[in-house]
Amino acid sequence: MTSLTADQGGAQAASPANRPLNRNDYKTLGLSALGGTLEFYDFVVFVFFANVLGSLFFPASMPDWMRQLQTLGIFAAGYLARPIGGILIAHFGDILGRKQMFTLSVFLMAVPTLVIGLLPTYESIGLAAPILLLAMRVLQGAAIGGEMPGAWVFVAEHAPAKRYGFAIGSLTSGITGGIFLGSIIGVWLNSVYSTAEIHDWAWRIPFILGGVFGLVSVYLRKFLHETPIFQEMQARKQVDRELPLKTILRDHREASVVVALMTWILSTAVVVVILFTPSYLQKVFHIAPAVALKANAVATVTLTIGCVFWGWLSDQWGTRAAMVLGWGGMAVTAYLFYLNLPGTEISLVWTYALVGFFVGAISLLPVVGVRAFPPEVRFTGLSFSYNMAYAVFGGLTPMLVSVWQQADVMAPAHYVAAMGVLGVAMGFWPLAVKGWVAKK
């Protein structure tokens, strides 16, 4: 049985561990990253147009705060659906194959996104409008729950061992690029169309574009091949016939805890530094929205670059060194950024970009998580642990930081730094560094 240890992470069964990435590797990585970018764009674009959706899909007589709450509730439903979708898609991914489920997750994201762009509003069909919007959001959540773990496993099982971290880091950078793409589309739409035009019809453009490009990605993924490790398991008839989740809960609880804790770090870094901070800058330090969003866009770019760098560094120096330097750097630069607010526009952009680069160490989660489980239940183990933890920590973090912030304006810095320290500590956890190894 092939296992992904620290020295064998992601190696193809029939390929030398130290071979360079070849043309097929780059095709697999490119198509996987493209699909991940478009799928993550489809998932987050909802939040960029939440105010418009709230005004269109709920009664005009409803108070603004209630309408906003209802809209954010529908947005949150996508997060709550992640564990269910992730577990189901991963279950069949461990039994039927990675490729089929990898393609299905994109399809389940593209179709609801396209439908949202075509939905009639409350004015046309009444209460059915928000109900349909909620249903599409739940399907989106189920899809994203299977996409990220599926993409990580798929690419890891294709990549040669010595390029394992770089391949996963590059894929993760493509996924985070979906946030940047959604932000750019939002800025473009608000620059080209008036508020009235966006409210009337232009809000549909980003959803229709996302749906169409997602369907194109479904087509392109047909050119991908099943992973060598899954093919090897099939040849040896070692595909797990027991319910994979049962095996995870019985035999791989330590690995599940490792992935859950690292997901806590990832969700804190992304939610607080990238998603929460722009509004924090505006409300607490009265920084102009345009300046805050500009700095955020730069930080998102450095985050994307950082994902590749920290994955590459794990290949060159080892996972422990990458975790200590990456997450230790995140803890330090979090204080450098938040303690120097508001500062000047230049200092704001520079320090935000710097902490964004170290947030890119989130790519170490899949580097560790994929190899923490044996191939037979790898997809299920990673998906279950990641999605359950993200549903909890991703949902609670904004509320926790908001409440904490009332007592201490530096709450975001303390929280992010604490997660950085946790990440450094996890660099000394043997399973996190060495991965799963078959018992002799």
UniProtKB/TrEMBL annotation:
Intracellular or extracellular location(s): Cell membrane
Sequence ranges assigned to domain Major facilitator superfamily (MFS) profile in this UniProt record: 28-440
Keywords: Cell membrane, Membrane, Symport, Transmembrane, Transmembrane helix, Transport
GO annotations of cellular component type: plasma membrane
Entry membrane topology: Multi-pass membrane protein
PANTHER family: ALPHA-KETOGLUTARATE PERMEASE, MFS TRANSPORTER
Record-given protein name: MFS transporter
